[in-house]
Write a structure and sequence with these properties.
The chain is of the alpha/beta class and 336 residues long. It has 2 domains: 196 residues; 95 residues, Serine Threonine Protein Phosphatase 5, Tetratricopeptide repeat (Alpha Horseshoe). It has 10 helices and 8 strands.
Amino acid sequence: MLILPVLASCKTNQLFLNVIEPAPVTVPSYVKIIGVINRSMPTEETKVFDALEKVFTLEGVDLDKDGASEAISGLSDELMGNKRFAEVKTLNDIDFRTSALEGFPTPLSWEIVSQICSETSTDALFSLEKFDTDTHVSYAANKVDIQTPIGNIPGIEHEADMQTQVKTGWRIYDPASKNILDEYVYEESIQSTGRGINPLVAAQALSGRKDAVRQVSNKAGQGYAFRLLPYKISVSRDYFVKGSNNFKTAKRKAQIGLWDEAGELWKKETGNSSSKIAGRAAYNMAIISEINGDVDAALVWAQKAWGDFNIKLARDYVNILQNRKNKNNLLREQEN
C-alpha cells in the first residue's frame, strides 16, 4: 500500500494511500459461462444512411464491420484471461441488426435473450450494441525549403490531418434476474497525419488508418472488460501531529514511513487525562488501523474518537470507513 505523508496544517498532516475499489459492474456469482454477440451491424433500413456517411467522411463501409469484429475479439480475449468465468463463447453465428442511428438500440427482449442462452448453454450475454466511427479531415499547405543538388528552393508541403473517433456501446443481459447489468459507452480517438508534395500524396499517406482503427477497437473491447475488475485509487487522510511529546515523536516516525512505531506512541496517548489528546490519539489509531488494512478496527476507533471525545474529524471519518466497509463487502462478493 502506497503511503505518502504531506504537510496539511499546523495540527494535522495529510497522507495518501491506495485503496481497492470494487469493479464498476457486478456480475452475479451464478454467471459462469458467457456469450458475446455483435448487435451493432445496421439493418437494411439504416444501411443507406450508414453508407452515405462513409462516403462523405472518406471511409470504407466495411471499416465499422472490421472494427466491431475487433472490439468483440478484444472483449472476448480479455474475459477469457479473467478467472472469474469458466468459459467465454463468441457467438458469431447469431446475426443481429440494429436500426438505431443514434444512441443505444432498444434492448433485446428477455424471450430472445433466454432463448439464446438456452440454445448456446450460456448464463449471460455481453452484447456490442453500437459501433461507429466518425472521421473529420482537414488540409493545410505549408511553405518549406526543398533540398536539391543545386541548393534549397522554396516549395509547398501538403498536410492532411484525419481525426477518427471510435465509439462502442455495450450491454450485459442477465436472463435469470431479467436485469441489464450494465449499459456503457466507450470512446477513443485516433489522430492520423499524412504529408506530401500534393494533396493526393498527403492523403495516401493516411493509408494506415484502417489498421489503427482496428487496433483501437480491440483496445475498446479490452477496456470494457476492465469494468468487471477491481481497481486502485488514491485517497487522502488527515492525522493529528500535535498534542504531546509522543505526538511530536510519532510525527517524525510517520514522516519516514515508520507507521507501526508511530501507532504504538498514539496508542499510549489514548488513555491521556486530556480528553482532547486522548480523542486525537483514538482518531490516529483509526488511521493506523486503516493503513494496516483493518477497516473494522479503524471504524471502532473512529467511533470512539467521535462518540467519546467529540473529535470532529472523526465524524466524517466514520462515514468514510462505513462506506469503505460496504465496498470491501462488495469486493468479497465479486471475488466469489
